[in-house]
Amino acid sequence: MSLHEKMNRYLANQQVSYIKLHNLHWYVEGSSFFTLHPKLEELYDQTAEIIDEVAERLLAMGHKPVASFKEALAIATIKELDSKPISGKDTIDALAKDVDWWVKDTKEVIAAAEKEGDVVSADIFTGYLKEYEKLNWMIKAFLK
Ligand SMILES: [Fe+2]
User: What is the extent of the structural domain holding 37?
Assistant: First the structure.
């Protein structure tokens, strides 16, 4: 898979994550509601910025960013959640799994960008990796 295909899959996964984070933001229940509800909002806002930046980077590279749910779901590897109440524990477990995936997927894009000598894309995704690794640490700390 070439760099731009990996970036489009990444974009599709971020689009799925955007609605998935809203799902958790709306449906989380229990004693950690007031902690998780605003944290999830912060994450979907961050995801919205990533979606826009990755799509515009693809355009700047001369490629077509995926821009419909139908197309995004066809290439995304991240799994959606049903629209139903979820406990704080299950919310954080789902989030921890996705963040592990985000870290792995971001590293893959960085490696592909470096291989193609695309320093700008490598730099953009390195910024995401920094944020995801920090989030990973915070989630692990929250789970202790
Ligand atoms: Fe909200």
Answer: 3-142
